[in-house]
Design a protein that fits this description.
3 helices; alpha+beta; 22% strand; four-stranded mixed beta sheet; 102 residues; single chain; two-stranded antiparallel ribbon
Length: 102
């Protein structure tokens, strides 16, 4: 399993997302995959990836929270959480998405 967190330099949510992702992986995933935090610093790079804004979590190259929101812009991402819109999914949402991903 390959896990990446794609982010832009000025995203205020990527570090918290990475922390939640690591906790969720530790709870849900039986193997010990490496999580790579990848800085996206050009529109060309964003265009070449399934990037939906910062932060985007990929598992085996697939967006863990798929949407129609793919972008080439170096933009922040919004997630719908039980507490309303937020810049990061909750740890529980990440755990559920990882479990569903299999």
């Amino acid at each position: 399993m390959k896990i990446e967190l794609l982010h832009i330099a000025d995203c205020p949510n990527w570090e918290e997302s990475l922390h939640r992702l690591q906790l969720a992986v530790d709870i849900v995933v039986t193997a010990s995959p490496t999580i790579d935090a990848r800085l996206i610093d050009s529109t060309e790079e964003a265009e070449s990836l399934p990037f939906a804004g910062s932060p985007t979590i990929l598992v085996d190259g697939v967006d863990l929270f798929p949407s129609e929101g793919r972008t080439n812009d170096l933009a922040w991402r919004i997630y719908f959480t039980p507490n309303g819109m937020a810049g990061s999914p909750t740890q529980q949402q990440i755990e559920e998405a990882l479990t569903a991903h299999g």
